[in-house]
Amino acid sequence: MTDALRFVLGGRVVEVPQADPAMTVLQWLRANGRCGTKEGCAEGDCGACTVVLGELDGGGHHLRYRAVNACILFLPQIDGKLLVTVEDLADGPELHPVQRAMMENHASQCGFCTPGFVMALFALHRTGGGTDDDTIHDALAGNLCRCTGYRPILDAARSLPPKDPATDRFDRAEGGLATLLRSIARPDALTVSGQGRVLHQPKTLADLSALVLAHPKATILAGGTDVGLWVTKHLRTLPEVIHLAEVAELRTLVEGEDRLDVGAAVTYTALLPVLERRLPALAALVRRIGAAQVRNSGTLGGNVANGSPIGDSMPALLALGAELVLHRDGQRRTVALEDFYLGYRRSDLREGEFLERVLIPYPRPGDVFATWKVSKRRDQDISAVCAAFRLTLAEDGTVAEFRAGYGGMAATPARARALEAALTGGSWSEAAVTAALPALDADFTPLSDMRASDRYRAAVARNLVLRFLRHTGGEEAYALETAHA
Amino acid sequence: MPDTALPPVARPIRGGVHAALQHESAAGHVTGAARYIDDLPELPGTLHAAVRLSDKPHARIVGVDAGPARLAPGVAVVLTADDVPGELDIGAVMPGDPVLASGLVEYAGQAVVAVAADSMMRARAAAKLVEVYYEELPAILTAEQALEAGAMVSPPITMARGDAAAAVSAAPHRLTGTLEIGGQDHFYLESHIAYAIPRDDGDLLVHSSTQHPSEVQHAVAKVLGIPMHSVAVECRRMGGGFGGKESQPAQIACIAALLARATGRPVKFRLDRDDDMLMTGKRHDFHVRYDVGFDADGRIRGLEMDLAGRCGMSLDLSNGVVDRAMFHADNAYFLPAARVTGHRCKTHTVSNTAFRGFGGPQGMAAIEHVVDEIARSLGKDPLAVRRANLYGGGLGGSPGRDTTHYGMRVSEPDLLAELIDEIERSSDYRRRREGIAAFNAANSVLKKGLALTPVKFGISFTVKHLNQASALVHVYTDGSVQVNHGGTEMGQGIHTKIAQIVAEEFQIDIDRVRVTASTTEKVPNAPPTAASAGTDLNGHAARLAARAIRNRLTDWVAGHCKVGAEAVMFRDNAVFAGNHAMGFAELAKKAHLDRVHLSATGHYTTPKIWWDREKGRGHPFFYFACGVAVAEAVIDTLTGEYRFPRVDLLHDCSGSINPAIDLGQVEGAFVQGLGWLTSEELWWDGQGRLRTHAPSTYKIPTSRCLPEDFRVRLFDARPNREETIHRSKAVGEPPLMLALSGWLALKDAVAAVGDHRVPVRLDAPATPERVLLAVEAVRAAAKAAGAA
């Protein structure tokens, strides 16, 4: 059995009866005459394929918009959603304010990246994005331009007039679009099969649990920011896929008294406002995971379950003592994250089991927590080294507890137990920390690769502890970000 | 002719030269309507191509099993080198570049087998099924290894003046050293693509994303064994080029053409990003050795320099690239005695190619490093040493110091001193230098650096015959004008500028002028759009073509109105002759009815240039384009991370045809140069395989990499002394080298760790890793110096 996909595009419901579940939204658009959206990399790293998705909010009357990379988004993932591409922005000859701003600021040269920038800015404009530079950079970090040097694009973003609900086309159309989206809302699971592949998209935890049990070899797809590449780059066929982003129970985020309880399908973007309140140090790091398009699709759960040695969230979760709730056939078990990884991209997940929730304890009052990522480029890069530290000092100023999580240093993200042991019980001072640093050599033997040499990784792993020492001493003035002219 | 003094159409023209117009495709860009080759509607039966790449750097091919690929779903044909009907080799200058590997692979990433199937994914899947059997051979991977082995794609040449060795020995001070300068991937957002469409009589139309349609035409004709008149190559626009689409598109187009010929069907070959980065050439990385003698003021007495470019497996354009590195080994500085030797190293890596600056950036990086180290060794501000070495008798130099090491007189030797004075003032260099010293004294973890660097870049192809251009202009009877020229549009705005030039010539609104796709059918035998000379050359040619028509119209008006030709004036969308006036459209119509020919070609050749490569002497450049930059950097000495709090640029765009476009070129080139020198690292593993072949691993700048305070100004006080088109100056490449200021500001910050007392070596790209390792080296050296 296969269902027809339905989504809204150009003010109409589009129905795709026999979709190949592994076809990307970008491939579909370009095959259907919408060539404004470009392929620059097919791996979600350049933003030329940026499109905007609209979804009904909880009340079912208003739309929430988010920019995503169409090149690593499978067509079934947009079932029931509004798809907006660069062709949809202008109203006849009347350009959208974003388009006008780009033209007036001479913000295109070769023009190939331009539709992607227009859509990223459109999403910023729709979400009422601020005009401060930090917000603009956050909105554009996933879009590469090789010609302009960005200044005119930034000026276009800075010059954008605030959205006027009285005249804004998309505001005026919102009621109609919401009606269309309600008309294609799907109460039950979706199954799409074609080209020898099948994709299941359950709506409830019970359905998901049954599907995983019935198809234990299936690939679990959350945001697709990594799985997408398995298809576009490694040409893997993925005969069975279970997509969990539409499972309502997995999209919940519970802000508890002493911990965050994060469903496996919660995107980074949904997580960020809560982190800003509860764990600002982690929020700062999450803003450097991928870029807006990736955070709009990607999930913490996916990052954890994937178990990549360079996943950026894990060092922090290890330092904080995060736990995972694993689910199999209605049964749950809780494991500490540090016990979850068994080796390179190997985890403790059993057959028929899936990651349901991530539990993140807050640092205790008085604890100091910080996490840093070091990479060649600040935005949308993968760590050479990522480290996170949590320090609890005893009354007498000695180290009661010190937890350090590292990424990029071994086959899996891991705690630096020798370092932790060397510091625990001693004084928290430059002398003590310096004396303890050689313990890191017992914890890790890093590799050399295209991101960094072993020597650099070892040096940075040590120096980040020194940075943390200064941080606990309140020395913020040294941060690069604040060292303005 | 009506006797009205002012016809209704007469009003000032919109968009002649010097107007800051928007790019001609701006509306198409922001709406997605501007079409690139992959956006062209596909003809029925279109096939898609993919290639099987070598994963060995150097090996004999002992067998190819394409059987499973031939049987894969959707596959129409699988081709190897044996199936090429014409010539196999498509080397741009000399043979060495087989369109498909034949018997031997010489880099990991070389195309061995080509597949056409009914979809791109199926073609790629089928290409993976091809089995190639190799017998591995020893591989040379770096320029240094090639120098040792004497492996060269072309013999070394030397440019020399005086007895450099003696001058170095006799000088009061001397420094020797080496430097590594990394390469760079072009990372145009549109990867390589060609769409080959069979026509009648065995002819072929090829849509190619290329800076050099004529070369693509030549190569396609060669591999198919058919005359050039049977091959048409067209390019409306590229999604970026930067030199990467000068010689490289030929192979892509040839593979599409071969598959189209073999199947009789249209074939599109679009490279996936990874294949693009693995298959196609990049900016040359260089290994530099220097030995310099200088006096107590830091003034260079003699310089011996070896510039060894890693050319890869074939010559491609490497002679020109390494030559240009040698030409710019002086940058802005007078070298009284010099011996500059350029080595063209043959390695088993991808054949490196043109990239914005074409070797100039590497030559300049080398000399700027040397000048910087001279300053450090003397305990001087590097700016003082730069000034002491400038060409010219003006503010910084002395008379007679105005000839390059290859014998060309610098015609505006004082311009750089003027620019430096200006930016030193406007950037507040002196006060900030003091502020930075205070900051560094007060901070142990963060260190700041400051650097001011000049750029003097020679404009012209150093291969003389490329310095020509043609254009074809049609005036239609409604007064609309179509312009075809030999240049190609890659985002740099050449079509906009040339439309402005033609509008200016006819004195009509720019809306009446349409510049068409570049095609070998309208303008034959064009040089590549490269060397920053696109507008210089094609703008002249277009003006000459327009002028030829205007002259005919002038004669016709003079006869018609019975006035002398000198009384005929084109202005305000009209022509005026005595008391007569006529709108341009009316003029075109009437002239045509009176059998005036309204189409013309123009051909331009650059004057004054010559170059004797054997002797290393000549006047290879029509003129120099100049600019200056001041960059401030701050580094974190715990991690090597850094930012650029402020950068000031002042670039000479006097006489600009379009200041908005030129500003975009300056800013864009600077940021691209900064990427080359900072975050863009090409990394090969021990087996000669490039491991940074996609944006996930190869990091070009993002918007946050911009200097936080970025002040860019166009200097416009000195129109070109030479008779360039409207006295403008070429701008495509020169500002890229302004980014050397950023690299040297990082170096200055590293030097601050050792209180500017010990030498610093900071190879490019200065990734956070290289910065941290340089910091550690400086700390160790300072400690050793302190102990001694």
Q: Can you walk through the features of this model?
A:
The complex is a heterodimer of chains A (485) and B (788). Chain A has 485 residues and is α+β, with helices and mostly antiparallel strands. The radius of gyration of chain A is 23 Å and the shape is globular. Chain B folds into three domains: 148 residues, Aldehyde oxidase/xanthine dehydrogenase, molybdopterin binding domain (Aldehyde Oxidoreductase, domain 4); 188 residues, Aldehyde Oxidoreductase, domain 4, CATH 3.30.365.10; 352 residues, Aldehyde oxidase/xanthine dehydrogenase, molybdopterin binding domain (Aldehyde Oxidoreductase, domain 4). By secondary structure, chain B is α+β, with helices and mostly antiparallel strands. Chain B starts with 25 loop residues before the first helix and ends with a helix. Chains A and B meet through helix 2, helix 3, helix 4, helix 5 and helix 18 of A and helix 1, helix 3, strand 27, strand 28 and helix 17 of B.
Count of DSSP-assigned helices of chain A: 18
Question: What is the overall silhouette of chain A?
Answer: globular
Poorly predicted sequence stretches spanning 5 or more consecutive residues of chain A? none
Helix and strand content put the structural class of chain A at alpha+beta
Overall shape of chain B: it is globular
CATH topology of the largest domain in chain B: Aldehyde Oxidoreductase, domain 4
In round numbers, the mean pLDDT of chain B is: 96
Oligomer: heterodimer
Could you give the topology of this structure?
The complex is a heterodimer of chains A (about 475) and B (about 800).
Chain A: E1 5-9, E2 12-16, H1 25-31, E3 50-56, E4 63-69, E5 82-84, H2 97-104, H3 114-126, H4 133-140, H5 151-158, H6 169-172, H7 174-183, E6 190-194, E7 197-201, H8 205-214, E8 219-221, H9 227-232, E9 240-243, E10 253-255, E11 259-263, H10 268-278, H11 280-286, H12 292-297, H13 300-306, H14 314-320, E12 323-328, E13 331-336, E14 341-343, E15 346-347, E16 354-361, E17 368-374, E18 385-393, E19 399-407, E20 414-415, H15 417-423, H16 430-436, H17 440-443, H18 454-472
Chain B: H1 26-31, E1 47-53, E2 59-65, H2 67-71, E3 75-79, E4 104-105, E5 111-117, H3 120-129, E6 131-136, H4 143-149, E7 152-161, H5 164-170, E8 173-181, E9 193-198, E10 204-208, H6 213-224, E11 231-235, H7 249-263, E12 267-270, H8 273-279, E13 286-294, E14 300-312, H9 318-327, E15 338-346, H10 360-378, H11 382-389, H12 415-426, H13 429-442, E16 446-459, E17 468-475, E18 481-485, H14 494-506, E19 513-515, E20 518-519, H15 534-561, E21 568-571, E22 574-577, E23 580-583, H16 584-593, E24 599-605, E25 610-612, E26 617-619, E27 623-636, E28 642-652, H17 659-677, E29 709-715, H18 740-753, H19 768-787
Helix pairs in contact in B: 6-7, 9-10, 10-11, 14-15, 18-19
